[in-house]
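Entry for the shared binder. Reason: the reviewer on the internal report wants the predicted structure included alongside the sequence.
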Amino acid sequence: MRKKVLFITGSINQTSQMHQISMQLPDYDCWFSQYFADSGLINFLIKNTSLLNSTILAGQFKENAERYLRDNNLRIDYQARLNKYDLVVYCSDMIVPDRMRNNKTIWVQEGMIDPMTFVSRIVKSLDLPIYLSGNTSLNGSTNICDIYCAASPGYKEHLSRMGTDAEKIVVTGIPNYDNLQKFAVNNFPYHNYVMVATTDMRETYRYENRRDFIKEAVRIARGRRLLFKLHPNENFERAQREIRQYAPADTLIFHSGNTNEMIANCDELITQYSTVVYVGIALGKKVHSWFDVDTLYKQMPVQNNGTSAANIAGICRSYIEFRGDKADFLKYFRYPTVAEQEEEEVAL
């Protein structure tokens, strides 16, 4: 029987990344589950309330991810009830059920990690469950998983500083953000605008003064046309109404469409807490962010011509087949990138 791998999904970005990795593992039996907990309280809230609908545990995140899986004919094993798995690949380590910790586990970075807040510092200092932070600032910091696949050397340094053992962290790059130059040539019809990429802070119960943010975008634009690309999780009607009230009449507003192509055609990019700022950096745009821009350049995901999924799948394959103690795997494993493997093949 073929060995089984379970990929834990979340947002569409997380789900598509897991799909890409699984496509590099055709010799294994791959299954998928939306992010889940074994907590009776959490599962009660998911089933009987809408309190967790703004998280990847429930609501439109779960619905959209499972629709994606069905559309791509991928097998679903929600909450890992159907099979026993030789490897579990996580998109977040903020909740890892106790029963899953006996499995071999790999964590894959999705994209940008939220900045630390007052709440997340308290959660970290008191060793509370890190999902209580209310954002992703502590994602990747638990040291629970056996291997951590990071976007860049800068993020490896960050994760290590936050509490995950440096020897567990491998810089693989991350799918969806490892070949951003490919968006430079596109069919998006607009050009020469200042683009604003918003986030869903209000929908995830965080404070934002959207009026002041729009006014700041208008100031930065200095008379140039604005284009707003709204976060898919946002309340579109409210966001559109606010933009129409405080931005010039010719401002473009999109709730869907290819964000990366929109960035490729802009002159300048304004973001809040959004991974798409890295698209702007990769494409040579002037960027604005609520993160420190120098730190963003340091943490920029490695650009490896789209080989991150294969890099991560190679680690998955090696780890599944490793027969020793889990703790010994990284002592003996040398991580060759796809580029290095290709160089070795040429040399042969």
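Summary line for the report: The longest strand covers residues 4-9.
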